[in-house]
Write a structure and sequence with these properties.
single chain; 613 residues; alpha/beta; six-stranded mixed beta sheet; four-stranded antiparallel beta sheet; 10 strands
């Protein structure tokens, strides 16, 4: 039974990827809710049915009072016994079945799947963003919004059908019931309803913005705390424990203040609601008693009116809280949309074809990129790297080396110029096909918080265990991997490496990264300080491995340790985003230019990137 309702909607069903999703709240929710339209209709109908059943029971209890006071018990039971038995059957059997259908649709058909669909699509949407997009935000804040927005959306949907639809139907039914008993009884209800609507309007106008402010504050706090945890080594290294505590306290206190402002609204709401409900009880019940005293209303009408108003009195706080929760949840969703609904700027063209790599020739034509600034990056760069050529890239910090690599990988779209691989503009080919043909080992050899095997296999998902081990051996990683273990008792290739590989040394992380790239075996290879974390002895062994891996590939290697690129076919020297020198190691030394100055000022094989004094 549960599975039937749980399968009413497939949260992972196909849907079109949208580069520019709706940025406004209701269009966005409407778009995500399309698979649930039929289920929502069923939930609304059942919510109305359950409300009318509850109203009907109150009405019938008034009738029971009238019946019991209409004669002797034996006469009443004789005349109305069958009716009472049928009502009992309805209460014992039919009513629970209707209630069960209502909660099954809501609790098992909608809630588990709606939040899942929301989180699944939001995560997919965010993962489609470019590297540059992630560099402009806190990972903790992004993750917080992805995690808190779906349950907030689910809460909003829950309140719509569990409270709002039910309460609207209940109030309409109450008005009909009171009018049927005596039209004058609906007058105090109508007055109360107008005042209650004004209170709801006053509350909701303030709850939404207050809730969004509180949600923003929570996200900021999460971002700061996660930032401290992520950089815990720096925090401890510089003994800034107290500074981080104060940094977090500032955000926590701001969160407390925004939440306190939100709670003030609820306190005022509760006080005004009690006064309104007092008017409702006195107005309806008092009028019913007056009508009874005038002989125009029965005791059953008084009983039904009393039960109804007491029920409404109990419900109004719940309704108001449900509405507040609804709008507060919408505020959280609205805050989440600031991340989830951001447009995807770096996209494949509609007719993008897979990259057809025939030889591996790379050509940069008039390539410029300054990250939207006036300086930095690359300026009108022209460069051709022949297939199979090994090129070293040298320059001071900020010269444009990393920018060149990011543009080659299309982590950013160039502001001007083109990057061609085998004559194909990379802006016109699929991003996945481009990056699948490029292997990269970076200085920041961060790993996924998974097993060693998973991290190496990332380079080739269908690789066998034998291929994974062979790649690890090539990277001089196999021996230390066998000695690894984690707190859960997993060992060797099954051991988990911690967040970003924190449980491993820098050299171990870099060797696992090398193994991953070796396994990938891409025809274009980028090495960004690939051996920077290795000691000299291991580096010498890895260098031999790298030379083997480079065989037959087009290679771009960035290095401050010039000895690692001295044997490259060409060395390109960048300065202020432009090529200032180009040639072999010996040719550049002969020119006695910038490269020769770098080489002569090396200490221990490292490049002094400061200008000569």
């Amino acid at each position: 039974m549960f599975r039937f309702f749980e399968k009413l909607v497939d949260p992972y069903g196909p849907y079109p990827d949208v580069d520019r999703p709706p940025v406004k709240l209701w269009p966005f929710i409407k778009d995500y809710s399309k698979p649930f339209r039929k289920v929502f209709a069923m939930a609304a109908i059942m919510s109305v049915v359950v409300a009318f059943v509850e109203i009907g029971l109150i009405f019938y209890m008034g009738r029971v009072v009238d019946l019991l006071s209409s004669g002797e018990p034996s006469d009443v039971l004789s005349a109305h016994g069958t009716e009472l038995i049928l009502i009992a059957f309805f209460i014992l059997i039919i009513r629970p079945l209707l209630q069960a259908l209502d909660v099954l649709i809501l609790n098992n058909g909608i809630l588990p799947n709606y939040g899942t669909l929301f989180r699944w699509r939001a995560h997919r949407q965010v993962l489609r963003q470019s590297v540059g997009w992630f560099e402009n935000d806190f990972a903790g804040r992004i993750a917080n919004r992805i995690m808190q927005t779906p349950p907030a959306a689910g809460d909003a949907v829950f309140q719509v059908f569990d409270a709002i639809t039910f309460s609207l139907a209940y109030i309409v039914g109450a008005a009909v019931l009171l009018s049927g008993a005596d039209p004058r009884l609906s007058i105090p209800l109508a007055v109360w309803l107008v005042l209650y609507a004004l209170l709801v309007s006053w509350t909701m106008k303030r709850v939404g913005p207050a809730s969004k402010a509180a949600s923003d504050a929570r996200s900021m706090t999460t971002g700061r705390i996660v930032d401290s945890y992520t950089n815990i080594q720096s925090v401890k290294l510089f003994a800034h424990h107290d500074k981080e505590i104060e940094f977090a306290k500032e955000a926590i206190e701001y969160t407390r203040q925004t939440f306190a402002k939100e709670m003030r609204i609820y306190t005022l709401m509760d006080i005004m609601l009690v006064a309104l409900n007092g008017f409702l009880i006195v107005g309806v019940v008092g009028w019913a008693i007056w009508l009874w005293a005038q002989g125009t209303a029965s005791i059953g009408v008084v009983a039904a009116a009393s039960a109804l108003t007491l029920r409404l009195n109990a419900m109004t706080g719940w309704i108001m809280w449900a509405l507040s929760t609804f709008f507060r949840s919408l505020g959280v969703v609205a805050e989440g949309l600031e991340t989830i609904a951001q447009p995807i700027e770096l996209v494949d063209l509609p007719d993008a074809k897979p990259l057809k790599l025939t030889s591996g020739t790379i050509e940069l034509k008039g390539l410029s990129h300054h990250y939207g600034r006036d300086s930095g990056g690359l300026e009108a760069l022209n460069l051709k790297i022949e297939a199979g050529q090994k090129v070293g890239l040298v320059g001071r910090s900020g010269a444009g080396k990393s920018t060149l690599v990011k543009l080659l990988l299309r982590f950013y779209d160039a502001e001007a110029g083109k990057v061609l691989i085998d004559g194909q503009d990379i802006a016109a080919v699929g991003q996945d096909s481009l990056r699948s043909r490029i292997g990269m080992v970076s200085q920041d050899s961060a790993l996924l918080h998974r097993s060693v095997k998973d991290n190496i296999q990332y380079g080739k998902p269908d690789a066998t265990d034998e291929q994974i081990i062979a790649a690890a051996k090539h990277a001089e990683a196999h021996e230390f991997i066998l000695d690894l273990s984690d707190p859960q008792g997993r060992t060797g290739y099954d051991a988990h490496v911690g967040e970003r590989g924190v449980k491993l040394s820098g050299g171990q992380r870099q060797r696992i990264t090398l193994a991953r790239v070796i396994l990938k075996d891409a025809p274009i290879l980028i090495l960004d300080e690939a051996t920077s974390a290795l000691d000299s002895e291991v580096e010498a062994e890895i260098q031999n491995t790298l030379y083997d891996v480079m065989e037959g590939k087009t290679v771009i290697a960035i290095a401050h340790r010039l000895s690692t690129i001295a044997h490259m076919d060409r060395i390109i020297v960048l300065e202020d985003g432009q090529i200032v020198e180009d040639g072999s190691h010996d040719e550049l030394l002969t020119k006695n230019g910038l490269y020769a100055g770098f080489w002569s000022r090396q200490s221990g094989g490292f490049l002094n990137t400061k200008a000569a004094e």
